[in-house]
Amino acid sequence: MTLRAGKFYFPFDRPLIMGIVNVTPDSFSDGGRFFTSESAVEHALKLMEEGADILDVGGESTRPGAEEISVEEELRRVLPVVEALAVRGLPVSIDTQKPLVIKEALAAEACMINDVNALQAEGAMELAAASEAAICFVHRQGTAKTMQSAPYYDDVVAEVKAFLLARVEAALLAGIDRSRFILDPGFGFGKTQAHNIRLISALPALAAMGYPILAGLSRKRMLGEITGRAPDERLAASVAAAIIAVQKGAAIVRVHDVAATRDALAVIGALKEKI
Ligand code: HH2
């Protein structure tokens, strides 16, 4: 399996690390730390040095209860960062739900669209189809404002799978090649602790759908519930979660702490055939 992402090809001979670049004042774990374009670019370059394969640039927090921002404000935050990184030839993913942000980021040579709304906004699928970017389809129940109020599923795994398959079908109908798809169960996006755990245990079944699976567990609340620690104290918990996700079949992990995750995955990669 090889992922096509614009001019980049990722063969999946090892798990990929997506480094998180939040150009936001209010992200749940690092809000405000990289809010200027300069600090965001500097942080992104550091993540590349630490071993990131893809840089995921986002300008709007998706944490439960977050306020939506205008498209102008989101563009003001992310576009200079996407431009500065892409011009250096780096693989940049745009983390957005807004078609206009997708459009401008693609024009600035972002090679991946990471959409927690799974290209359901009007015009989003067409924009993706007109590009060669990879697409990460994320499952979410509700919106950022409502999703954690009372998540409910009859069968969380079956419902997440059905949703992701429907998005794949829609993308295929739009003429997008399957080599550009990534699927993500959306940990914490309208899910209780039990739902998240159920989805981790179902990662092999999700991977069996035949597309690379992205797992975003880094510093998330479910790790806080287990460890009792604040978001910026969840490094060890996040590395443990990334390892479990990879061992269960995730092909990409989306993380804040690239260096530690890279080392942990390198040890697993070096030892797994030998022990
Ligand atoms: N999680 C977050 C944001 N984007 N994208 C994908 N594909 N999968 C995820 O699990 C995911 C995501 C939330 O994390 P973070 O960016 O750290 O926080 P915030 O949304 O508060 O900026």
Fold and architecture overview:
The chain is α/β, with parallel strands linked by helices. The chain has one domain (15-269): TIM Barrel. It has 10 helices and 10 strands. The strands form 2 sheets. It has an 8-stranded parallel β-sheet. The protein has a two-stranded antiparallel ribbon with strand order 1-2. Helix 1 crosses helix 2 (71-86) and helix 9 runs parallel beside helix 10 (258-271). The longest helix has 18 residues, at 156-173. It is globular, with a radius of gyration of 17 Å. The two termini are 25 Å apart. The model has no long low-confidence stretch (mean pLDDT 96). The structure holds 6-hydroxymethylpterin-diphosphate. 6-hydroxymethylpterin-diphosphate binds at residues 20, 22, 24, 27-29, 58, 61-63, 95, 114, 116, 136, 138, 184, 186-187, 214, 216, 254.
